Amino acid sequence: MAESSLGVGDVLARCRAEGRAALIGYLPVGFPDVEGSIRAMVAMVESGVDIVEVGLPYSDPLMDGPVIQHAVEAALAGGTHVIDGFRATRAIRDAGAPALVMSYWNLILRRGADRYAAELAAAGGAGLITPDLIPDEAEEWIAASEREGLDRVFLVAPSSTPERLSRVTDACRGFVYAASTMGVTGERTSVGSAARDLVDRTKAVTDLPVCVGLGVSNGDQAAELAQYADGVIVGTAFVRALSGEGELEARLDALRELTTDLARGVREGAR
Amino acid sequence: MTAGRFGAFGGRYVPEALIPALEELDRARLEAMQDPTFLAELDTLHRTYTGRPSIITEVPRFAAHAGGARIILKREDLNHTGSHKINNVIAQALLTKRMGKTRVIAETGAGQHGVATATAAALMGLDCVVYMGKVDTERQALNVARMRMLGAEVVAVEHGSATLKDAINEALRDWVTNVDHTHYLIGTVTGPHPFPEMVRDFHRIIGVEAREQVLELTGRLPDAVVACVGGGSNAMGIFHRFIEDEGVRLVGVEAGGEGLDGRHAARFASAVPGVLHGAMSYLMQDEDGQTVESHSVSAGLDYPSVGPEHSFLRDSGRADYVFATDDEAMEAFALLCRTEGIIPALESSHALAGALVLGRELGPDGIILVNLSGRGDKDMHTAAEWFNLVDGGKGESGGSCG
After folding, report:
1. Distances (CA, A) of B174 to A69, A106, A112, B110
2. Does B182 touch chain A (CB under 8 A)?
3. pLDDT tens for residues B327-340?
4. Catalytic position from the list B74, B83, B85, B197
5. Residue B332 and residue B345: Cα distance in Å, rounded?
6. CA separation, residue B259 to residues A58, B32, B254, B310, B322 (Å)
7. Where are the strands (E) in B56-147, listed by range?
8. What's the pLDDT band for B2 if we cut at 50, 70, 90?
9. Which tens digits make up the pLDDT trace of B363-384?
10. Is the CB of residue B202 less than 8 Å from the CB of residue B148?
11. What does this protein do (chain B) (predicted)?
């Protein structure tokens, strides 16, 4: 395939053609250290993750639950920097999957939206997910991402009104991130009916793929979501797998095992 | 340009999930401020519960140390619960009921805002959870007990630096989870729109009263209005009525901590604009944009960012911002105690320190209005350690304050 054309849209279209949902995996760069996090991201790709979300550790992660908070605190304490994200996007791209950076806005703002967009594109990154930036405040980022041809993923939530859904999806490029439960990141025993309702309401206003995140931790839950979502986003469960005690090799094995289970799930849920 | 901007500052940098709640709040507060019933209810509560109008007190023995300028204190320390915080809290609690919500959450640093929120929740029968950094719960154990006596649940936050900014993170996490029945009662003029504007409007009464009171006492407007600035709610409250009085200098005093070479919270002296807790404003941050921890002897000023309207007033030149170090604030604290028999909050002591400098500049003809935003009872532990007052200490550093 032509390396330069691998955006998340291409991958989501390929998954759709295969009659399945995509599996999207999140890990923060720098946990347990920069090297280890990049190995883990590549391991996810090799075991069946279709798109990787590269989290940039931030001092005030107000959308994240305890598991991810703990991991990003450790990453920051270990000296992880914004530029380490570029090493991760390059490695993921080389492994054959698109990499989306997920970052709280101040890190991008500090570097400058234009500069960050150019650097991310140069590092093979596909785009950016912005959990605390709404399209209303994103004029600069929209212009910069257009210029560089980067994907732009904003979030919708169960509380979003039809007007908000339209406004947010109009600004997205690549896919729409449906945060399926009100609250912070973390595993949940049931992903519930709110997710399906949100996906239906979102699809009513956009033709873009809609991927669902917040709460999925195993293949069966992934299968349930895959019945109606274009992609299943998993974060906390991956971070937890990598957080275990013992050698990094053993934790990477746990990560691969989880990826395999989730990859089965997104295929079983085939529509 | 979006709603809720002060020039380039302010905005709504929050998860999409909170946008409908912010829009609901914005509608509700705009309607309420036009509703005679709401305004009458608020006015009655201020007169019969808060203790408004708060008096002004001229302090000549203190002013003798400030080049002889006349110094007049706006006594927000005499409000119920001991600070200006109650002005905003009572109003937001009324709004909470008006929106049909049954639970309030709040962040607190020193505990003033937490105590005020717990108080209003008790008065109005609302469930109340207060988030407080673990470090602050230890520094302010008595305030934790006060909040619990008033029926609030106090949650000690252990993440990050375990101080005010982390308490706000945790409160935002709670809010996004429980937003359908919960109002986040933010205690200062920051956060996403409409909080900076709304909280300012609820404190505006400070300046409205003080302007009239000073005119009545002195026959003219003051040369300067001085207030401490953490998030900046007491300062916006007393500044706002004076903004169009061009001859009146507005001076905000930040916490200089150990001085600019050490740890401090002098945002305007050191920082560049950034986004924290939903608003674009000056922000102490490193090269990567990670928040840098602030420091002040006063927990209420110990915050790495500042209300966005202050950033606007600063950049537009309408207000000046200076800082007072821990040492200077503690000296002013002791001076007011010894010369006037008023124990100020450590936060307000920064404003007093600023007034001492300004008074020497203005000379005997000057008139300075200082917002005495809170009382210092809560700070006795810090003061006792600082001045060595425990175990029979003599408080030597107060020697110059006679």
Report:
1. 15, 22, 31, 20
2. no
3. 999 999 999 999 99
4. B85
5. 11
6. 27, 43, 11, 21, 12
7. 56-58, 70-75, 103-108, 127-133
8. low
9. 999 999 999 999 999 899 899 9
10. no
11. The beta subunit is responsible for the synthesis of L-tryptophan from indole and L-serine.
Nearest to A136 among B2, B165, B278 (CB): B2
Quick check: A155 and B16 CB within 8 A? yes
Q: Residue A82 belongs to a domain with what CATH number? A: 3.20.20.70
8 A C-beta contact, residue B239 and residue B251: no
3-state secondary structure of B370: strand
How many CA atoms lie within 13 Å of A146's alpha carbon, on the beta-carbon side?
8
- Compare CB distances from B13 to A61, A65, A105 and report the shortest one's residue: A105
Residues of B (10-49) whose Cβ lies below 8 Å from A: 11-21
Q: Could you tell me if the ipTM is greater than 0.90?
A: yes
Residues contacting residue B263 through CB under 8 Å, at least 6 positions apart = B257, B293, B294, B295
- Provide the H-helix boundaries in B204-274: 205-218, 233-239, 267-270
In a domain, A190, yes or no: no
Lowest mean pLDDT among A249-258, B25-34, B138-147, B257-266: B138-147
Q: Which domain holds residue A103?
A: 3-154+216-264
Whose tokens are 């949940």? That residue is A188
Q: How many domains does chain A have?
A: 1
- Residues B295/B284, Cβ–Cβ less than 8 Å: no
Q: Walk along chain A (271 residues) and give the pLDDT tens digit of each residue.
A: 334 557 899 999 999 999 999 999 999 999 999 999 999 999 999 999 999 999 999 999 999 999 999 999 999 999 999 999 999 999 999 999 999 999 999 999 999 999 999 999 999 999 999 999 999 999 999 999 999 999 999 999 999 999 999 999 999 999 999 998 887 777 776 666 789 999 999 999 999 999 999 788 999 999 999 999 999 999 999 999 999 788 999 999 999 999 999 999 999 976 5
DSSP code for A125: -
DSSP SS3 for B50: helix
- Which of A65, A110, A131 minimises the CB distance to B288? A110
Number of H helices, E strands in chain A: 12, 9
pLDDT at residue B337, rounded to an integer: 98
Nearest to B124 by CA among B147, B149, B103: B103
In a domain, A166, yes or no: no
Structure tokens, A84: 């380490």
Domains of chain B, each with CATH number or no CATH: 5-46+85-199 (3.40.50.1100), 48-82+204-401 (3.40.50.1100)
Flag whether A181 is in a domain: no
CA dihedral sign, ordered B274, B278, B279, B281:
negative
pTM value is: 0.95
The residue type at A106: N
- The A-side interface with B (CB below 8 A) comprises 58-63, 65, 69, 73, 76, 81-82, 105-111, 131-134, 136-137, 154-161, 164, 168, 179, 182-184
